[in-house]
Design goal:
- This protein is an alpha+beta fold and about 150 residues long.
- The chain has two domains: about 70 residues; about 80 residues, 2-Layer Sandwich (Alpha-Beta Plaits), CATH 3.30.70.330.
- Helix content is about 30%, strand content about 25%.
- It has five helices and seven strands.
């Protein structure tokens, strides 16, 4: 789900992109979203909209949770399927032509079938650079392995 999907679903609540933070687990699967409403009335409007649609659960949390949640704001991409033997040079070669921030990249392994999947988080200076990298590099190859690219919001 994209931030814009949430904003359009709650169209009567006057939310902006900066008012939405996507909550990811350690494997970068979206688990939920934190919303910062401009007023109590706006929150009550959102509650009424979700009750009508019965699709989502809305609950209040403390403002501290909002402050502690790190948001990448669409300025990072997740490379999935990077070969386990790929070095930093190989990843940089794959990203050639994009405006990524220099290493170190965040690397981690996620369980997969039939073997674990290596994932690499790459940060960019702007949303536009990250989106351009997604468009140019999604379904590309690194050391003859297909790599899927996802923009992390």
């Amino acid at each position: 789900m994209l931030k814009t999907d949430i904003i359009h679903y709650l169209d009567q609540c006057e939310l902006s992109l900066d008012d939405v933070k996507i909550d990811y687990n350690k494997g970068f699967y979206p688990m939920g979203a934190l919303l910062k409403f401009p007023s109590v009335e706006s929150f009550e409007t959102a509650v009424r909209q979700t009750i009508q649609g019965r699709m989502y659960r809305l609950e209040r949390v403390s403002p501290d949770e909002w402050e502690h949640k790190i948001s990448l704001n669409g300025k990072a991409v997740l490379l999935q399927g990077v070969p386990r033997n790929a070095q930093v040079d190989d990843i940089e070669r794959f990203l050639c032509g994009t405006n990524y921030e220099p290493p170190p990249f965040e690397n981690f392994i996620r369980a997969g079938v039939p073997e674990p999947v290596r994932m690499v988080l790459v940060k960019f200076g702007s949303r536009t650079d990250a989106t351009n990298a997604f468009i140019a590099k999604n379904k590309g190859f690194c050391l003859n392995n297909p790599v899927t690219v996802r923009v992390i919001q």
